[in-house]
């Protein structure tokens, strides 16, 4: 294991990303465990931080961690040093705390245990997926294949790949396929599949291009009922198990 870590992580310059990734997941799981214990009112777990009666949300601690970790990371010149790893880990932990209350920041009200608060969990899951892809060595838009090409043909090749991959990913996102579009930034074939398939009902693409009552709209609605909703129910179950069930379902 140590040899693999040195070769695949430290040796490839991904030590800081690895520390960020591990700390991000650990901090998210810890804070979700903490808030669930507080929600249950167990006596053996510390409650909310309320100095002077003011409830301090953990997004505040996350911002502090991100500032310290971010500035510390900029100050460290050796990317493979322990200080660089520690700064990346601190930044990852802070980012987890911030994104765990993303819905609160977005709505500027405490929606943590409501259905709106589930947005925070979805953002965290997306972040974990994208960081995991980068940790595996993938890079957005497939530009790595052209690194080091200095001739004009190589330069135009880079531009072509970037434009095509980005365009396909944007189309997938416009069709309401968030996961497909984001992962498609790293894996071009995923973006291609999302771009050529039917849009989700209610997406910007569907509202602009599918006339009410048209064959495409009917097919999109049928596909939503048949495929998308079971996946959403499964994702909701997994989210409830990891993050806790919202107070009320929409």
Please characterize this protein's 3D structure.
The protein is an all-alpha fold and 250 residues long. It has a domain at 1-137. It has eleven helices and no strands. It is globular, with a radius of gyration of 21 Å. Keywords: Membrane, Transmembrane, Transmembrane helix.
In short:
By secondary structure, this protein is mostly helical. The protein has eleven helices and no strands.
**Broad shape:** globular
Q: How many helices?
A: 11
* Low-pLDDT windows of residues: none
Which structural class should the secondary elements be placed in?
A: mainly alpha
Order of SSEs: HHHHHHHHHHH
Q: Kindly state the percentage of residues in helix.
A: 55-70%
User: Distance between the terminal alpha carbons, to the nearest Å?
Assistant: 46 Å
The share of residues in extended strands comes to under 5%
Mean pLDDT: 86
Summarize the main sheet. Answer: none
**Rg from Cα:** 21 Å
**Could you tell me the number of beta strands?**
0
